[in-house]
Amino acid sequence: MNIPESTKPAIWGAIGGAIVAIVIGFSWGGWVTGGKASQMQTSSAEFAIVQAFTPLCVVKAEQEPEQIALLKEQSSYQRDDFVIEAGWVNNVSEKYRSEVADACGDSIVEGME
To answer: What is the pTM of this model?
Structure first.
């Protein structure tokens, strides 16, 4: 089988172009691997859960104004523990409770300022 001499550079050019396309696609093009896409999906779902339950926590907190005053006195690092102990996030799964409590405490204190 005789292959013309001009075919060899064309094949190397196609291989080089494919490599460059892959590098550019993963670096700047926004391409991700299946594992990274799964990780992004999980992160997005967790964020949605926190965003959904935070307003419910705030409503529960507003029913106890004396506790809100005590919450404001807590440091930002202790707010989530305070919210959990107050029982404002009892309806949230244990897996997400700390994140929801943190977001709830921050929302309440920011709303008071």
So the answer is: 0.69
